[in-house]
Amino acid sequence: MVKSYRPRTLEEALKIRSETRCIPYAGGTDLMVRYRRGAGLAAGFDQPVLFIGQLAELTQIYEKNGELTIGACVPYREIIHQRHTPEILRQACELIGAPAVQNLGTPGGNICNASPAGDTLPPLSVLDANLTLQSLSGERNVSILSFFTGPGKTILRDDELLTAIHFRLPHFTVEGYRKVGTRKANALSKVSFAAFMLKEKEMLADIRIALGAVAPTVVRSRELENRLIGQPLTDLAKLLPEILESYGKLILPITDQRSDANYRKTIALRLIENFVLKEES
């Protein structure tokens, strides 16, 4: 049977993590799937397990001076009911699994699992979220887009824990979120889409677009966004074919049991097109 630890403080957890390089375990909704061995069998963890979901330092969610801080182990259910949660993130959390999963699952687990289909990743990407990574030697703050290096791979060191997610509360005139799956909820994404747009004086003042499940990591291109920012709204339709062609080079989906690559790419480009041409509501 694998050894496990249940620390009482974050400092104790970081000390154990540093000494043992054990697997952090919060809600376990991703880990129990990854390490399952079959019906009736205990999960086959190959390293000691560090339970962190009970730590007070990691289970707080609060707004201060226009910034929302979400502890890495705050359950999705609390994020859904927090009044400052941006609607785009709330919608993503509402479509993650069944109520039991929402009561246990956490954004920290979704981020560290680093699946290209992670439901919270596109919304957090367009929110320009920053992550706090902490170890006994100190902490570092990194953007969520720089955190992922490939499917299931991140820059998290084996002596670190992701402790919090931070972002400024958004102020945009148009937003969009879409999860394309076999069912509305309780299904992994075939494609996921999150976006913001700010229109001012018939001009596109800002735009952010992120897509999940269509490449090894979340697709977001500030270069392509900057090519649209500052353009008159009447020119967007004319610019769109060139922009879609450029996004097409970034969208590199795979074919798997949930969907095929051509479908994913077609839907992803259509979602971008529909959003850019969307009338303010």
Structure explained in plain terms:
It is a single chain. It is built from 11 helices and 13 strands. The protein has 281 residues and is an alpha+beta fold. It has 2 domains: 4-168, Uridine Diphospho-n-acetylenolpyruvylglucosamine Reductase, domain 3 (2-Layer Sandwich); 174-276, Enolase-like, domain 1, CATH 3.30.390.50. Helix 10 (236-250) runs antiparallel to helix 11. The longest helix is centred in the last third of the chain and has 16 residues, at 261-276. The termini are far apart. The mean pLDDT is 93.
Q: Count the strands?
A: 13
When the domains are counted, the total is: 2
- Helix-strand makeup class: alpha+beta
Q: Biggest sheet, strands in spatial order?
A: 4-5-10-6-7
CATH architecture of the largest domain: 2-Layer Sandwich
Number of helices: 11
- Share in β-strands: 15-25%
How far is the first residue's CA from the last residue's CA?
Answer: 56 Å
The ordered string of helix (H) and strand (E) elements is: EHEHEEEHHHHHEEHEEEEEEHHH
Residues in helix, %: 25-40%
List the helices and strands and how they pair.
Layout: E1 4-5, H1 10-20, E2 23-25, H2 31-34, E3 49-51, E4 61-64, E5 67-71, H3 76-81, H4 87-94, H5 99-104, H6 107-113, H7 121-126, E6 130-135, E7 138-143, H8 144-147, E8 148-150, E9 153-154, E10 161-168, E11 174-180, E12 191-200, E13 203-212, H9 222-228, H10 236-250, H11 261-276
Parallel strand pairs: 1-3, 2-3
Antiparallel strand pairs: 4-5, 5-10, 6-7, 6-10, 8-9, 11-12, 12-13
Helix pairs in contact: 10-11
